[in-house]
Every structure is written in structure tokens, then in C-alpha cells.
Amino acid sequence: MSTLLRAVLFTLLALSVPSAWADPPAEAAAASTAASAPAAATAAAVAPTPPAPSSSQPSVILNAQINSGDTAWMLTSTALVLMMTVPGLALFYGGMVRKKNVLATLMQSFAITCLVTILWYVIGYSLAFTPGTPYIGGLSRLFMNGVIYVKDIAAVAATKDTPAVQAVIGKVSVSHLGVTIPETVYAMFQLTFAIITPALICGAFAERMKFSAMLWFMGAWSIIVYAPVAHWMWEPGGWGATAGVLDFAGGTVVHINAGVAALACALALGKRVGYNKEPMAPHNLVLTVIGASLLWVGWFGFNAGSAGAADGRAGMAMAVTQIATAAAALAWMGTEWLVKGRPSVLGIASGAVAGLVAITPASGFVMPTPALVIGVAAGVICFLAATSLKKALGYDDSLDAFGVHCIGGIVGALLTGVFASTALDGGQAGSVITQLQGVMATLAYSFVASYIILKVIDFTIGLRVNEEQEREGLDVSLHGEHVE
Amino acid sequence: MKLITAIIKPFKLEDVRKAIGEVGVQGVTVTEARGFGRQRGHTEIYRGAEYNVEFVPKTKVEIAVPDSLAEQVIEAISKAARDGKVGDGKIFVLDLEQVVRIRTGERDASAI
């Protein structure tokens, strides 16, 4: 290595502690340790430059360039979104099923968390978030290969009067989609989305799906459906992103995707034994409300975290999320009060979730007042979808995964096209037509692919438990456990 | 001996317990029950799905008494459990063939 380069590296080391993105001025070299004497002696007037991260694929930069504020927030967001699945969604669904199935329902969320984590690390992350083609990523990050956080030792050669010194340089890889945070954080943050999406589908087949079949389905779905759709909409080279489909935090990638897959499940598995004849009321809405609350709080990580930074955009995303959610909860509650005569606890909790779903694609693109409109629309429309639509079409989407997540996601995606504001920093122009393209493509692909995967599993090991197991309850028949 | 089974409104349990204690009853078994007679249940709605819940929560009180005490106990329960509204409950009186105290093996009169 040239002496000049070593001087450059040494200067960087001396100044790496206080700040990121520092272009260290040449004169600061004099203030560092004695060992920098060679640097001072040979440093030219050239200001050293940290490597620029790539905007099209993951790359390696220096630790010094990582933004600690962004990283702290993204670490927190990751935890918040993980909490949304365990125990948020687990409890939300768990409280709504009959007591004999509560453990099995919790188990689904928990097991999916574990399974998808491994698959994401092995191949999911690579397929979703490396360039590849417009339809699917490449295999460069298989087993998270290349995701690094390392020490590099560079030898600084001795000059005539001073001893040789070793410079320690910290290097870290970053995703092109989050250049101020370590790639590990980005990958884990995205993992939590990859986890909750399949977990949402469980609402459709509650109380009747075989655990083994569910594991196979979710594993295959995560790779065949989730990763490609995420790639389309969030990878810059993905066809959706290129076409201008706006999906800030996953209205399409997560909710429409999971929601329509849920419909495929409801149709493929059929109705529960005794559906519409026997009582199937929620056994403990306390669990459901706790779950909904954890979902709400965690959603700040989901939406505001999708800003990828601790900045004003995250702040605006948080604000619009809160407003839309509250509006939707009140709208559902109000509609139910008018139509059915009483406001219900399940209703207000469901309304809040519907609002969270609908604001998800819009959260980085809209201002507060449109967020209110989105919330109200979601509250009313999802109420009708979960009550009248389901009754009219006759499918058993047990916990309204389609009615709330797919329909709510579509409402949000289309209204994002209406309300997207270019006045916002990072905002883009919205087009309802473009949004519709994204919606239709996801509906078609997710439904067909999910249905095929289901049929293959049905043909091999079968999807449903038998009637006796269903009557006895999945807790006892699948897991040998029960709650008193 | 008689086995007196009373189905009462749950909030009346404390009053009934005091009342039978005053006439000399020393033991009782209490169970949670659901039921209806002429009392209407209620309707619950979960996301638009309506459930007619006909059963109303009740408390079942069972007491074993010697024949001589039966009428007093019936009176006591009736007075204490009466609310004056539909759903107050019923008392069933059954003939009790044998009673055994498990700890000592005593039977019948000395076991109540």
C-alpha cells in the first residue's frame, strides 16, 4: 500500500470516533497520537474520502459512516415489528378463537416466526433485496453471505525514524436501501415484515388446519410469494418500484398479499365444521384487545421504521399512522353502533387494525388530513367487508384476514394514489392507475400461487384435520395441551 | 333425609348462605351453572355474527338435611333468594337414601 494511502487511513482512524460521514480535514491529523507522525509528515493536501455506498446493491463502507441515530431507531423498529407478531398478532387471533384452539393459534404465530427467520437468512433476504431481475432477486446473499461487520488490519509501514504501526479499520456492509445503517439491521428489520405477512394468513384457516401442512405452506409461501412481491415493490429494480407503485411500508407487499392468500386458504380448506350453525364466539376478547394494542404500538416500527432513518419522514409517518388508526377505530365503532345498535370491543379493536392496514402504504407519502380520510374509509369499508361481504359470499374467513387486510390494503393502496403529496420530503406523485397495477398483479399472483401450493400440500399430506380432531380442538389433538 | 337443590341468581349466594346458617345448616356445596326457565337470555354480536345466548348464569346450592329441617331450609332459601323478578330460580327436593362421612365412616343422621 502507498504511504499516502496509509496516511489517509490513519487520519480517518483518528477522527472516526466523533462523527459519521466525516470528511476529516487534513489539519486534524496533528491532534492525534504520536503514531500519526508519519501521517502528519506525509499527508498531502488531499482530503481522504470514505467509500461511497452503492445505490443499486449492497456494498461495504466504514463503520464511521454509519449513522447512530438511524441505527438506534431501526434496531428499535425491528423489535417493535417483531413484537407485532409475537405476541401481538398471536394474542389478537388467539382471543378470537374458541378456547379449545387458543394454544394452536398462538403456536402458529410463534412457529412461523421461527421458520421464516431461518428461511430469510438462508435465501429469502437474497431473493427480496438483491438486484437480480425486475421479478426476483439474485442469490448473492444466500446464507447472508457478504453481510459483514469486520475488523481489517492495515499495516502502516515504518519510516526511517518511526516504528511500524497497525491501523484497525472497521468495515460494515450496508444495503443499498439503507446506507446509513448496518446491513444486519436492515435485513433483520425486513425479516420482521417477512414474518408477520404469513402469520396474518392464519386468520383465514383458524381452528382447522394441520400444523404440519401449515409449516409446509408458510415455508413455501415465504420463498415463492413473499420474497418476489417484496422484490417487485421495494427493490429499486423491481418492476413495481420502477413503474412508480407507492407502497411505503407494505400495504401491498404485506396486507394485500397476505389477505388474498388468506382467501385462497379459506376456499381451499373449506368451512369449519358447524359453521353458521354452532356458536363460535371469541373465547376471550381480553387477549384480543391486548393483541390489538401491541399491534398498534408496534406499528410505529412498521410504518415510521420504514423511513429507514430517524428523521422527519419517520415522524410524519408516525403522525399519520396514529391519526388514521384512531379515525378508523371510531369509524368502525360508529358504523356498528348505527347498524347493529351497540359499539363493541371487538369492533373498535378491529377498526383500529383496519386503519393501521390502510395507512401502511400511504404512511410516507401523505399528510395528516388525508390520513384521517383514509382511516375513516378503512373503518367503514372493512366493517362492511368483514360483516356483510363475508355473509353474502359465504366463505369462512374465520378471523377476517381477507376482509380486513386485503380489503384494507386495497383501500390504502388506491387512496395512496389519490393523496400522495410531492410537497413531502421524499414524497412522490401518486397515480391511482399505477397503484391499481400493483394491486391487481399482487392479487393475481398471490392468489394463484397460494392456491397451487395449497393444493400440492393437500394432495400430499392433506390440509385439514379430520372432523373428530376439529371437534375435540386443535390444542389437544395437534399439540397434546390445553388451557383450563 | 332430603337433598335440597336450589338454583338461584349468583348475587344471592351470600344471602342464602347466611339464611341457611341461621336455621342450623352446617354444610353446603356450590356449583356454577347456566340455565333458563322463563327468563330471556341476551344477544351478542361479533363482527356481525349474531349469537343468541339463551343460558343465563346461575348458582346451584346443594344441602343435605334431616327431614325435620327440610321445610325450614326451604323457607329460608326462598326468602333469601327472592328478588321478585323473573329468573329468581327454583328449589328441588329429593329423597336422600344414604349419607356417609368419609373421614369417620359415620352414616345417615350422624353424617349430616
TL;DR?
Chain A is mainly α and 484 residues long. Chain A has helices spanning 3-15, 37-42, 68-94, 102-129, 183-201, 211-234, 239-243, 251-269, 285-303, 312-340, 345-359, 368-393, 401-419, 432-460, 467-472, 474-479, and strands at 59-62, 149-156, 165-174. In chain B, a hairpin with a 2-residue loop joins strand 3 (42-46) and strand 4 (49-53).
Q: What oligomeric assembly is this protein in?
A: heterodimer
Count of domains of chain B: 1
Q: Give me the secondary-structure category of chain A.
A: mainly alpha
User: What is the CATH class designation of the largest domain in chain A?
Assistant: Mainly Alpha
| Major β-sheet annotation of chain B | 4 strands, antiparallel
CATH class of chain B equals Alpha Beta
The first-to-last residue Cα distance of chain A is: 71 Å
Query: Beta fraction of the residues of chain A?
Result: under 5%
What is the CA-based Rg of chain A, rounded?
Answer: 25 Å
Describe it for me?
The complex is a heterodimer of chains A (484) and B (112). With 484 residues, chain A is mainly α. Chain A has 2 domains: 3-62 and 143-174, no CATH class; 73-137 and 184-463, Orthogonal Bundle (Ammonium transporter fold). Chain A is built from 16 helices and 3 strands. Chain A has helices spanning 3-15, 37-42, 68-94, 102-129, 183-201, 211-234, 239-243, 251-269, 285-303, 312-340, 345-359, 368-393, 401-419, 432-460, 467-472, 474-479; strands at residues 59-62, 149-156, 165-174. Chain A has a 3-stranded antiparallel sheet. The radius of gyration of chain A is 25 Å and the shape is globular. With 112 residues, chain B is an alpha+beta fold. Chain B has a single domain (2-110), classed as 2-Layer Sandwich (Alpha-Beta Plaits), CATH 3.30.70.120. Chain B is built from 2 helices and 6 strands; from the N terminus they run βαββββαβ. In chain B, helix 1 (13-22) packs antiparallel against helix 2. The interface between A and B is small, with 16 and 7 residues.
